[in-house]
Design brief:
Blueprint (H helix, E strand, L loop, with lengths): L8 H26 L9 H11 L2 H13 L7 E7 L4 E7 L9 E8 L6 H4 L3 H10 L3 H15 L1
Antiparallel strand pairs: 1-2, 1-3
Amino acid sequence: MLADKDLPPYVYGDLKREELVRTGSVVLHEYYFANLGGDGKAGGKIQDLLKQWFGSYEQWEAEFKRTANALGGGSGWAILAYNLHTREVHNYWSWDHMHNAPTGLPLLVLDMYEHAYHMDYGAAAAKYVDAFLQNVNWEEVNRRAETAVKAGS
């Protein structure tokens, strides 16, 4: 397409936007599936980070659930991320595959698109969020947290 001197810029712009959407979709889904399959019990570095930035696991969980449930019935992602710019840990609300926190490294990713839960939970997105948290692979999240903190140093 670069060889086509008459190609309208908006056509190339649309392709670049779609490239970003598809890349974000692949990455976030890979993170999502990799952080499933555990016993739902946090420990290690991630436990320390949650306590540092949220006061306790329970306070983090309440805020994460509220963030996720705010997306219920729609689409998007709830993402616990380490922000390389501020060196803080936040729960982020992302309404699609490409609008995420700049410099945020995902630690825990929850798919809140209806396709992720509607077959099993119908409109009961909150039940899906509860089930998700009972099945988090915290070893994977912990590995991501350790890598993120090192990257931020």
